[in-house]
Write a structure and sequence with these properties.
This protein is an alpha/beta fold. The chain is built from 8 helices and 12 strands. It has a 5-stranded mixed β-sheet, with helices on one face. A 4-stranded mixed β-sheet has the order 4-5-9-10, with helices on one face.
């Protein structure tokens, strides 16, 4: 059995199928970790969702910010944005089945000291803290108040985590950390303005993986295509998976045992 971790699909269905073929992926034998953002920007978002769903228990998926945006549009009253490519999902005959499946995905998956989330893990949170925090959001998404939460999920405040946060502020801070984090300050405050490479860091901020930790987990993340799969200056075992397929880069799988990376080129 081989376990692969794959970066953001973002609707790159043709490349996803090509990557699975190159890996000789067999769901009866192998396992696949997907770092979120299965949808949006690419032309095959609905097909990506159906393809991953068909893999059943062989695929473990975390939610990314674009996945949550889809849920907010479909079930929280949010508006589509100009560059969104979600219409096919919203119009699909099986949309409710697909959306139910997506909404039941977690914010993190973990195996021992390996943890994957869409955006990473800040140094202030241990693995044992991360899982129950993610579970708080999963509980809300699986409950009767999910629609109200999705409607109010957006926002940049609070920008810094505190253990005494509660209610919507607490849930929003958890979601923002796991799905939107790039640059942070030494006190854990998140910046939401800079989205490009490392040279776009605002004063007083640095990539989350350049801060030391007291433990030594293996952290898998997507979300940051501008890194092109690299983590320069990292002070933790962080492995970037998003190699910008939808932006003309590649779709990449990381063999979690050997560390080998296997990519297929973008068709965009």
């Amino acid at each position: 059995m081989t376990t692969y971790a794959v970066g953001d699909l973002q609707g790159c269905h043709e490349e996803f199928v090509a990557l699975l073929e190159r890996l000789d992926f067999d769901p009866r034998r192998d396992r696949l970790w997907l770092a979120g953002d299965l949808v949006n920007r690419g032309r095959g978002s609905l097909d990506c969702l159906r393809e991953v769903m068909a893999l059943g228990d062989a695929a473990r998926v975390v939610l990314g910010n674009h996945d949550l945006h889809l849920l907010a549009v479909a079930r929280g009253g949010a508006r589509l944005k100009r560059k969104d490519t979600l219409d096919a999902i919203l119009a699909a005959a099986d949309r409710e089945r697909v959306l139910d499946w997506l909404q039941s995905r977690p914010l993190v998956v973990r195996d021992g000291d390996t943890l994957m989330s869409h955006a990473g893990l800040p140094p202030q949170w241990t693995l044992d803290q991360a899982e129950p925090l993610a579970a708080e959001v999963a509980e809300r998404l699986g409950g009767e108040r999910a629609g109200a939460f999705l409607e109010q999920m957006y926002g940049n405040e609070p920008a810094r985590w505190r253990d005494d946060l509660d209610g919507l502020d607490r849930l929003r801070a958890i979601v923002n950390t796991f799905t939107r984090m790039r640059f942070i300050a030494a006190d854990g405050a998140l910046d939401f303005s800079a989205k490009e490479g490392l040279d776009s860091a605002p004063p007083g901020f640095a990539p989350w993986f350049q801060y030391p930790r007291d433990d030594d987990p293996r952290l898998l993340f997507g979300h940051w295509a501008a890194l092109e799969g690299e983590t320069p200056g990292s002070r933790v075992r962080a492995e970037a998976l998003d190699t910008g397929c939808v932006w003309g880069g590649a779709l990449t799988a990381l063999d979690l045992e050997s560390g080998a990376r296997i990519s297929v080129p973008s068709r965009y």
